[in-house]
Amino acid sequence: MRIFVPRETDASDLRVPIVPATVAKLIRLGAGVATEAALGQTINLTDRQYREAGAEVAGRAAGFAGADMVLRLRKPDEKDTRAMRKGTIHISFLDPFNDLELVRLLASAGVSAISMEMVPRSTIAQKMDTLSSQANLAGYNAVILAAGHLDKVFPMMMTPSGTITPARVFVIGVGVAGLQAIATAKRLGATVEAFDTRPVVEEQVKSLGARFVKADLGDTGQTAQGYAVELTPEQMEKQREAMAKVCAQADVVITTAQLFGRKAPRVVTTAMVAQMKPGSVVVDMAVESGGNVECSRLGEIVSVGGVKVLGFPNLAGRTPRTASDMYSNNLGNFVEHFWDKNEKTFRLDPQHDIIKGCLITHEGNVVNETIRKLLT
C-alpha cells in the first residue's frame, strides 16, 4: 500500500502531519511512504531526515496520483480532492459539520474520507484521539498567552519591596483543554478557580489544586463523547450570574466551552468583561467555532475598558513541533490499529465501531449518518 503525505498549504499553520519517527513506523508495517518535498521545513525537519526514515520524497502531483492513502493535517481543497484516484483513503481533520460542500466533493470523487475529529472518544481509541492531543496543547498555550499579555506576574513572590500576591485565573469549561489550562496556571503559581456545567469534573479540578465554582443549574450532564450537554436559556442565565462575580475578581479568564458539531455557547458577555479590572486578560479558546465571549473577534485582540480579549485561532499550532509530534503519533496509531500485517494493507471496515464513527464518505456516498442528515 502506498501512502502519500502532502505539504500543508496554509501559511498560518506551521504544524506538519507526519514526522520521521512515524514514517519509520509505517515502513515497518510494510507500507510504502512518499512525502512531499519540504514537508517538515516549518518545524526544521529536512527531506534528508524523512529519507533516512524510509520515505521517498515525491512531487505533489505524482504523490496524489499514485497514492492508495493520503495522510494530512488539514482538509483538502478542490484541486487536491480531484487529484486523488477513486478509492483513495484520505485521513485528516475535515471539519465536516461546517464544510458540507467538501463532503459532497469527496463523495463524488469516490474518496473514502476519514475525519480525525470524529474518532469516537472511547478507551480503545484513546491513542488515536487527535482532538484531545491538540486540546492539551491549546490549554497550555492559552495560559502562556495570557501570562504574556497580563500586566502582572502569575506567582506569589517574596521580594525586598514586599509580598506580591499571585494572579487569579478563572477557567470556564473543564474538558481536556480546561484541565491543562488549570494545571499550567497552577505550575506558574496562580490561584485558580474553574467552572463546568458537569458536576462530575469537580474532583478532577480539586485534584489539580483549583477551586471548583458551583452553580445550581438543575439537571445537567454530558454526552457519550464527554462533551457538556447544551443548556437551556434559563440555565445559561443562571450560569452567567454565578460566573460574573468570579470574573470580576479574576486577573485572567480562559473560556474553553465547546459543543461538538455546533456553535460554541456564549458564556461571557461584554458586560461581564467590562466589570473586570483594567489590565486583566480574557482568552476565548472557542473563537473559531463562534466564540464563548461576546466581544471576542477571530484573530484579534479587543480592548474593553482596558481588559484585553484575545481571540487567537489554532492555539495548539503555537507550539508547532510538539503539536506535530502528537498529531503524527495519533495518525500513526490510527493506521496501525487497522493494518493487516499479513496483507500489508489498511483494512477499511465501514462497520467497525471506530471507523463507523469517523468515516464520512465511501464508495461515492456520504456514509456518516450525522453528516448525511445535514445534507438533506
* End-to-end separation: 35 Å
Quickly name the level 1 CATH class of the largest domain. Alpha Beta
Mean pLDDT, rounded to whole units? 94
What name does the CATH topology of the largest domain carry? Rossmann fold
- Contiguous low-pLDDT stretches (5 residues minimum) are none
Shape designation: globular
The number of distinct β-strands equals 19
| Domain unit count | 2
Trace the largest sheet across and list its strands. 3-2-1-4-5-6-18-19
Radius of gyration: 22 Å
Main β-sheet description: 8 strands, mixed
Description:
This protein has helices at residues 20-29, 47-52, 60-65, 78-83, 100-108, 130-149, 176-187, 202-207, 233-249, 270-274, 320-337, 353-358, 369-375; strands at residues 2-5, 32-36, 56-58, 69-71, 89-92, 112-115, 157-159, 162-164, 168-172, 191-195, 211-212, 252-255, 281-284, 301-304, 307-310, 339-340, 345-346, 359-362, 365-366. With 376 residues, the protein is of the alpha/beta class. It folds into two domains: 2-118 and 338-369, NAD(P)-binding Rossmann-like Domain (Rossmann fold, 3-Layer(aba) Sandwich); 137-318, Rossmann fold. α5 links the parallel β5 and β6. The longest helix is centred in the middle third of the chain and has 20 residues, at 130-149.
